[in-house]
Amino acid sequence: MTLAAPLIRPTPTPSAPLAPMGRLSPHLRRLEAEAIEIFREVAATARNPVMLYSIGKDSGVLLHLAAKAFYPAPPPFPLLHVDTTWKFRDMIRHRDTVAETYGVRLMVHINRDGVERGVSPVASGSSLHTQVMKTDALKQALDLHGFDVAFGGARRDEEKSRAKERIFSVRGPGHTWDPRRQKPELWKLWNSALQPGESLRVFPLSNWTELDVWEYTRIEAIPVVPLYFSALRPVVERDGALIVRDDERLPLQAGEVPQLRRVRFRSLGCYPLSAAVESDAADIDSVIAELRSSRSSERQGRLIDADETASMERKKREGYF
Amino acid sequence: MDGEVVPLSRIVPDPVPVPVPDLAGRDHLRFLTCGSVDDGKSTLIGRLLFDTGQIADDQLAALERDSRRFGTAGDSLDFALLLDGLEAEREQGITIDVAHRYFSTARRNFIVADTPGHEQYTRNMATGASGCDAAVILVDASRGVTAQTERHSRIVSLFGIRHVILAVNKIDRVDYDPSVFETIASAYAAFAAGLSFRSVTAVPISARLGDNVVRHSCRLSWFEGPTLIEALESLPVEDNRLSRPFRFLVQYVNRPDHSFRGYAGTVASGRVRAGDQIVVSPSGKTATVSRIVTWEGDRTSAEAGDAVTLVLKEEVDVARGDVLALPHARPTSADRFSASLLWMDDRAFTPDRAYRIRIGGRTSPVKVALAEVEAGHAAGLNLNEIATAELTMPGPVAFDPFTDDPAMGGFILIDRETGAVAAAGVARAALGQARHIYPTAEAVSRRDRSRLNGHEGGAIWLTGLPGSGKSTIATALERKLHGRGIRTVLLDGDNLRHGLNRDLGFSPEDRAENVRRAGEVARLFAEGGLISLCAFVSPIETARRAVRDRLPANGFLEIFVDAPLDACRARDPKGLYARADAGVIADLTGVGSSYEPPSDPDLVLDTLALTPEAAADRIIALLEDRRWIPAP
Fold first, then answer.
1. Do B86 and A209 touch (CB under 8 A)?
2. Using the beta-carbon criterion (under 8 Å), do B295 and A161 form an inter-chain contact?
3. Which residues are in the Tr-type G domain (chain B) (predicted)?
4. Per-residue pLDDT for B71 more than 90?
5. Domains of chain B
6. Which among A44, A69, A168, B250 could disulfide-bond with A39, CB atoms 3.0 to 4.6 Å apart, if both were Cys?
7. Of the candidates B566, B501, B530, B283, the residue with the CA atom closest to the CA atom of residue B398
8. Which residues of B participate in the annotated binding site for ATP?
9. What average pLDDT does chain B have?
10. How large is the average pLDDT for residues B409-437?
11. Quick check: A296 and B24 CB within 8 A?
12. Interatomic CA distance for residues B458 and A294, integer angstroms
C-alpha cells in the first residue's frame, strides 16, 4: 500500500477572452440549438405546457430561447411565476417588464392558504416556508390549470442531484420524483409518453453552466434583475451570511444595525433566504470576470440547500422544481 | 465509487500556476466513463474535476463533511462523493444513475458522463453513452477485464463510439507493476479486435493518488505514453455532419396564423440554401425552400446543428417526423429494416406486446421479430441483452443507417402500455427489397399450379417427441401419396441438418432457427405447388405458429404425433435417449428440455393405438377432407 502523496490544489483552467457582442461561440450556438430543439419537442407533443419563470438569470435565458424557438410566433405557452410574497421588490418589477417585452402571457400564483396561515421565512423558518410557499404552491398551480409539462431553468452544474436528472424528467402522481426509476434518455429521442397522473419537468438548460448563462446573457443583451450587480445595499450579517434587508418585514435582532455594503447576488430566491456576496462587479463584464476567478459555487448563498445533506434531492422528490 | 480516500491534511496549494494558452479555438469532447462496479469511475471524475481546478471552496468543504459521514475513513476526502449525488448512492457507496459534469483544460472543453457499473443499472450507462465521442473504460488493475467491462464495451461499440481509452486504474494496488498493465492491455486489445473501435489507447493510472491522470508520475516512469488527460485532449473529434447529405428533421409545424406556415426543426447534417429544391421523405413530394427564418432574421443558408424554421414555396403536405433532403441524396424510405437492439426494460421482449418506435422525429407502431440474440443467453431478449432484429412498420419511414448518421438511424422502442423505454437500437439496412420481388414470383398463381398438378400445395407439419414416430409416418405417407400421383417432398430434422442447417447446434436459439428455416423451405415448396411432409420435433408452440403464419391460409396442417415419453424412450430408434441419459447429449427434448404439445392441432395421431400405415391413412383422409387432394 503506497502512502498518499500531498494533494495539490490546482488552479482553475483560464477561460477564453470575452467574445465580441452579438457573436456566439460555437459552444454557445450548440447549447442554444439544443435548447430550442427541446422547446419545440414539447410544443409538438404536450397537451398543455407551461414555463416556470423564477425571474432569475436562468429564467431570463430560458424565456429568450423560447422566443427564438417559435419566432415569428410567440411561445405557445404561458409563463407561471410562483410568488412566495418574499421576493425582492426589484424582482417583481423586472418580472412585469420582461413579460411585456417578450409579449408572453404571465400567470402569477400565490399559495393563499399559506399566506392566511402566516407562513413566512421569518416566522416559520426556511424549510417550512419553502415547502408551503414554493413546493406546495407550485403543485397547486400545476394541478389547478392541468399542465402536463412544465419547463424549468435548472442546470446540471448547479447541484449534485440535479446532475443526475434527465432533461425530460417524469414526475409521478403528486409531482414526486423517483430518482431510482428514471427512464433512459438516448440521443435526442425524448420520450414524452405519460401515464395517468404523471407529468413532465423539462430542462432545456440542463447542459449549460453558470458561466455559459452569463456569457449568453451578455452577448444576447438579455435583461437581468439589477440585484445581480453590485451596489450599496442595507445588509445585516447572520451566521456569516450577508442578508439584504429589502423591506421592514425582516425583523432586526437585538443589537443589529443594517449597514450599507457593496454587495451583489449570484443566485436569487426569497430575500431572507438568499445571501449576498461582497463584490465590486457592477456590470455584466465584471460579473463574468469575477465568476471566472471565483473559488466558491453558485448555490453557496442559497440557505435552503444547507438544511441537510441531499436536501435538494429531498425537495425534488416532494415536488420542488 | 469505491471509498478511496486522501487525507485532508495533505491538501496544499498548487505551486505551479497554469500557463495561459490561446483559448479562443478550444473545441469540445463528450465522453463517458464506464466499466465494472468499484473500478473507480466516480473517483476518477472527482479527481479530474479537482485536478483541473473545478471544485469550489464551499464544495470542498461539503466534500469534507460528506467524507466524514459516508467515506470509509474519518479524516479523509472521498472524491467519488463529488459525483454520487443521490442519497441512495451515498448510503450504498455505488453509482445508480448517470451524472453529467463539465470541465475544461487549456486545450478542450469536456462533458463527461459518469455511468454506473452495476449490471442492474446498465440502461443508465447506455443513456450516458448515447451521443458521446469517446469512452474511458476503467479496469481495476488487481482484477483485470471482467464480463461487465466487455458488456460495456459492446454497448459503447454498438452506439457508434469509435475511440476508447482503456484506463488501468488502481495501478498502485499492484505496486506499479508494468507487466500487470501490459497483460491487461493486451487481453483487452484481443477482445476489442472484434468490436468496431478505430483506436484503443491504454494508460495506467491511480485515480485515488492522481498518478498519470492529469500529471505524469515518477512511480510510472516506465510508461512512455500519455497521461489520461493528454489522451483525452488528443482524441480526434470526428464531426462529419457537414460533409454528409442534407437532412432536416421536421419537429414542429409553426402556424401562428394564415400568413405563415413554417417547418421548425434542426439540420441533422449537410447544408441547405434558400432556393434549393428539396424532397419530403418518405412521401417523395418535392418543393422549394423559399425562406430560412430565425429570430435574428432570414438567412441564406443553414447547416448541420442549426435549429431553424424553413418556409416552402409550394403547398405540400409536410408533418412532424418527415425528413427534408435534397433530391439527388435522399434517405432510405422503407417499412422494414434490420437493426440491433439493447433491451432496457425489466419486462423481457414479448413478440405480441405492443411497441412503438421513435426514430428521428417520427413515432410509429412497430412489429419486432428477433433474428439473433447475443451468444451465451437463453431464448428471448431480456434486460441488458443485445440482439439483432427485423422491424416492420405499417408504412414507410425515412432513415439512414446509424453508422452513416446517428441522428437518422438511432431509435428507441417504447412499451405502449407502460410508456417505458423498452429498448434502444441502431438501424442497419432496409429490408424492403424482398417485397418487390414477391409479385414477380406470383406471375403463376397458386390456382394455376394446382390445376396443373391436380392437387394443392402446402405443408403437413408433424410434431412430437423424439422417437414418437414422425419420420416413420411421414415415409409411409409419402409412399402412399406418390402412388396417387401427388407431388411431395420429405423434410426432416436430420436431413436438413446435414445441409442447409449444418451451421446450427442445439441451443434454444439454434433450434428456433432450425424450425424457422424448415418452415421457409416448406413455404417455397408450397408456393411451387408441392406438398411438403415436415417431420420436426419443433417443441415450441410459438415457433410452429410462426411457420403457420408464413404459409397461405389452408396451406398448413399441424399434426401432433402423440406418444408418451416412456414409449418413445423404449423405441429410441436413433439411440438419442440412451445418449442423453449417459450425459452425451444435453437438452434432449423430453429429457433436458420441455415439449409444448399443440393446443389446437388439425389432427392427433395416437401412435400407441395406430400403426404407421393407419396413421398415414388418417392424414390422407384429412387431406381429402380439406380438399388438398381429390378423392380417389
1. no
2. no
3. 26-241
4. no
5. 28-234 (3.40.50.300), 247-325 (2.40.30.10), 332-430 (2.40.30.10), 446-626 (3.40.50.300)
6. A69
7. B283
8. 464-471
9. 85
10. 82
11. no
12. 80
Q: How many residues does chain B have?
A: 632
- Per-residue confidence at B17, pLDDT binned at 50, 70, 90? very low
Q: What residues form DSSP beta bridges with B370?
A: B389
- Cell reading at B444: 403463376
The answer to whether B504 contacts chain A (CB < 8 Å) is no
Select from B54, B71, B141, B179 the least CA-distant residue to A2.
B141
Binding positions of B are: 464-471
Supply B376's cell numbers.
Answer: 451465451
pLDDT at A8: 56
Average pLDDT over chain A, rounded to an integer: 84
Task: Considering only residues A37 and A182, tell me which one the structure prediction assigns the higher pLDDT.
Answer: A37
Map B162-215 to HEC letters. CEEEEEEECHHHHCCCHHHHHHHHHHHHHHHCCCCCCEEEEEECECCCCECCCE
What is the rounded average pLDDT of the residues A11-17? Answer: 56
| Residue B69 one-letter amino acid | R
Q: Name all contacts of A246-255 with Cβ < 8 Å and 24+ positions apart.
A: A246/A88, A246/A89, A246/A271, A247/A89, A249/A86, A249/A120, A249/A122, A250/A122, A251/A122
Structure ipTM: 0.86
Residue B100, C-beta contacts closer than 8 angstroms, at least 6 positions apart: A156, A163, A206, A207, B111, B112, B113, B114, B128
Is A36 at the interface with chain B, CB within 8 A?
A: yes
Name residues 395-424 of chain B within 8 A of A (Cβ): 406-407, 410-412, 414, 418-421, 424
Taking an 8 Å cut-off on Cβ atoms, the answer to whether A14 and B6 are in contact is no
Task: Write out pLDDT tens, residues A290-313.
Answer: 888 776 666 555 555 444 445 677
Q: What is the pLDDT of residue A314?
A: 72
DSSP code at position B593? B
A196 close to B (CB below 8 A): no
| Position B199 pLDDT exceeds 80 | yes
Print burial letters for A173-182: b (CB count within 10 Å at least 16), e (below 16).
Answer: eebebebeeb
Q: What are the angstrom distances between the C-alpha of B337 and each of B259, B334, B409?
A: 40, 7, 11
The verdict on B299 touching A (C-beta cutoff 8 Å) is: no
pLDDT > 60? residue B431: yes
Q: Which of A183, A189, A297 sits opposite B58 (nearest CB)?
A: A297
Out of B97, B105, B252, name the one closest to residue A164 (CB). B97
Q: Note if B538 is an active site residue.
A: yes
- Taking the model in full, what pTM does it have? 0.72
Interchain CB contact of A297 with B (< 8 Å): yes
- Computed over its alpha carbons, how large is the radius of gyration of chain B? 31
- Which pLDDT score is estimated for B439? 32
Kindly identify which residue of chain B lies nearest to residue A291, measuring between CA atoms: B56
Helix (H, G, I), strand (E, B) or coil at B445: coil
Residues of B in contact with A41 (CB under 8 A): 251-252
Q: Contact at 8 Å (CB) between A244 and A233?
A: yes
pLDDT band, very low/low/confident/very high, at B60 (cuts 50, 70, 90): confident
CA nearest A11 in B: which residue? B53
